[in-house]
Amino acid sequence: MGCFCMPKGQRKYNGTQKVEIIKRIHRENLSFKGASREYGISDRTLRDWERIYWEEGEEALLLERRGRSCAASGTQKGRKPKLDKQVEEDLIAENQRLRMEIDYLKKLNALVLEEERQNRKHK
Fold it and tell me: Which alpha helices (H) appear in 5-84, and where do they start and end?
Protein backbone atom coordinates (compact mmCIF):
# COMPACT_ATOMS: atom_id res chain seq x y z
CA MET A 1 0.00 0.00 0.00
CA GLY A 2 1.31 3.44 -0.91
CA CYS A 3 1.67 6.31 1.45
CA PHE A 4 -1.10 8.79 1.12
CA CYS A 5 0.86 11.83 2.17
CA MET A 6 -0.59 15.27 2.54
CA PRO A 7 0.86 18.40 1.01
CA LYS A 8 3.01 20.19 3.56
CA GLY A 9 1.02 22.69 5.58
CA GLN A 10 -2.38 21.12 4.94
CA ARG A 11 -4.35 21.41 8.15
CA LYS A 12 -7.81 20.16 7.14
CA TYR A 13 -8.44 16.49 6.48
CA ASN A 14 -11.66 15.14 5.07
CA GLY A 15 -13.39 12.16 6.63
CA THR A 16 -12.09 9.69 4.07
CA GLN A 17 -8.51 10.73 4.76
CA LYS A 18 -9.04 10.38 8.51
CA VAL A 19 -10.48 6.87 8.11
CA GLU A 20 -7.63 5.79 5.83
CA ILE A 21 -5.00 7.11 8.24
CA ILE A 22 -6.59 5.34 11.24
CA LYS A 23 -6.99 2.10 9.27
CA ARG A 24 -3.34 2.27 8.20
CA ILE A 25 -2.24 2.82 11.80
CA HIS A 26 -4.15 -0.34 12.79
CA ARG A 27 -3.17 -2.40 9.73
CA GLU A 28 0.55 -1.64 9.94
CA ASN A 29 0.74 -1.32 13.74
CA LEU A 30 2.10 2.22 13.45
CA SER A 31 2.70 4.16 16.63
CA PHE A 32 0.90 7.46 17.01
CA LYS A 33 4.27 9.21 17.17
CA GLY A 34 5.42 7.55 13.93
CA ALA A 35 2.16 8.32 12.14
CA SER A 36 2.31 11.84 13.54
CA ARG A 37 5.72 12.43 11.96
CA GLU A 38 4.73 10.80 8.68
CA TYR A 39 1.49 12.71 8.18
CA GLY A 40 2.41 15.93 9.96
CA ILE A 41 -0.57 15.58 12.30
CA SER A 42 -0.25 15.80 16.08
CA ASP A 43 -0.44 12.49 17.89
CA ARG A 44 -3.21 14.00 20.07
CA THR A 45 -5.32 14.55 16.94
CA LEU A 46 -4.67 10.99 15.78
CA ARG A 47 -5.70 9.66 19.21
CA ASP A 48 -8.90 11.71 19.04
CA TRP A 49 -9.68 10.33 15.58
CA GLU A 50 -9.08 6.79 16.82
CA ARG A 51 -11.33 7.32 19.84
CA ILE A 52 -14.10 8.61 17.58
CA TYR A 53 -13.51 5.67 15.22
CA TRP A 54 -13.89 3.10 18.03
CA GLU A 55 -16.70 4.80 19.98
CA GLU A 56 -18.89 6.11 17.17
CA GLY A 57 -17.80 4.22 14.10
CA GLU A 58 -16.20 5.04 10.79
CA GLU A 59 -19.13 7.26 9.75
CA ALA A 60 -18.47 9.61 12.67
CA LEU A 61 -15.10 10.58 11.20
CA LEU A 62 -16.88 11.72 8.05
CA LEU A 63 -18.76 14.42 10.00
CA GLU A 64 -17.42 17.96 10.32
CA ARG A 65 -17.16 18.65 14.06
CA ARG A 66 -15.41 22.01 14.24
CA GLY A 67 -17.19 25.15 15.37
CA ARG A 68 -20.58 25.42 16.99
CA SER A 69 -23.33 23.24 15.71
CA CYS A 70 -26.42 24.94 14.31
CA ALA A 71 -28.49 23.39 17.09
CA ALA A 72 -26.21 24.75 19.82
CA SER A 73 -26.18 28.30 18.54
CA GLY A 74 -29.86 28.41 17.57
CA THR A 75 -29.02 29.76 14.15
CA GLN A 76 -28.34 28.43 10.72
CA LYS A 77 -24.90 29.25 9.35
CA GLY A 78 -24.55 32.41 11.43
CA ARG A 79 -27.78 34.02 10.28
CA LYS A 80 -30.17 35.51 12.79
CA PRO A 81 -33.40 33.54 13.02
CA LYS A 82 -36.29 35.23 11.24
CA LEU A 83 -39.01 36.46 13.57
CA ASP A 84 -42.60 36.88 12.61
CA LYS A 85 -43.18 40.56 11.75
CA GLN A 86 -45.84 40.95 14.45
CA VAL A 87 -43.61 39.34 17.10
CA GLU A 88 -40.77 41.68 16.15
CA GLU A 89 -43.04 44.74 16.38
CA ASP A 90 -44.38 43.57 19.76
CA LEU A 91 -40.84 43.16 21.09
CA ILE A 92 -39.84 46.62 19.89
CA ALA A 93 -42.91 48.13 21.55
CA GLU A 94 -42.20 46.27 24.79
CA ASN A 95 -38.58 47.50 24.78
CA GLN A 96 -39.77 51.09 24.36
CA ARG A 97 -42.33 50.69 27.17
CA LEU A 98 -39.69 49.21 29.48
CA ARG A 99 -37.24 52.02 28.71
CA MET A 100 -39.95 54.57 29.52
CA GLU A 101 -40.74 52.73 32.76
CA ILE A 102 -37.05 52.78 33.76
CA ASP A 103 -36.84 56.52 33.05
CA TYR A 104 -40.01 57.11 35.11
CA LEU A 105 -38.68 55.07 38.04
CA LYS A 106 -35.35 56.93 37.97
CA LYS A 107 -37.16 60.29 38.10
CA LEU A 108 -39.48 59.06 40.85
CA ASN A 109 -36.50 57.84 42.86
CA ALA A 110 -34.78 61.21 42.46
CA LEU A 111 -37.93 63.01 43.67
CA VAL A 112 -38.30 60.71 46.68
CA LEU A 113 -34.64 61.23 47.63
CA GLU A 114 -35.02 65.00 47.26
CA GLU A 115 -38.15 64.98 49.44
CA GLU A 116 -36.33 62.94 52.11
CA ARG A 117 -33.44 65.42 52.07
CA GLN A 118 -35.89 68.31 52.47
CA ASN A 119 -37.58 66.58 55.40
CA ARG A 120 -34.23 65.98 57.13
CA LYS A 121 -33.29 69.65 56.81
CA HIS A 122 -36.55 70.83 58.41
CA LYS A 123 -36.29 68.59 61.46
Answer: 15-27, 32-39, 43-56, 58-61, 70-73
- Rounded to whole angstroms, the Cα distance separating 40 from 38 reads 6
The answer to whether position 20 is within a domain reads yes
Give the total number of structural domains in the chain: 2
Residue 24 falls within a domain, yes or no? Answer: yes
112 is in which domain, residue-wise? 81-123
**Which of the listed ranges 52-56, 99-103, 118-122 does the model predict with the highest average pLDDT?**
99-103
Decide if 50 contacts 25 (C-beta within 8 A). yes
Residue 119 within a domain = yes
- What digits encode the pLDDT tens for the residues 12-43? 788 889 999 999 999 999 899 999 999 899 99
**3-state secondary structure (DSSP) of residue 79:** strand
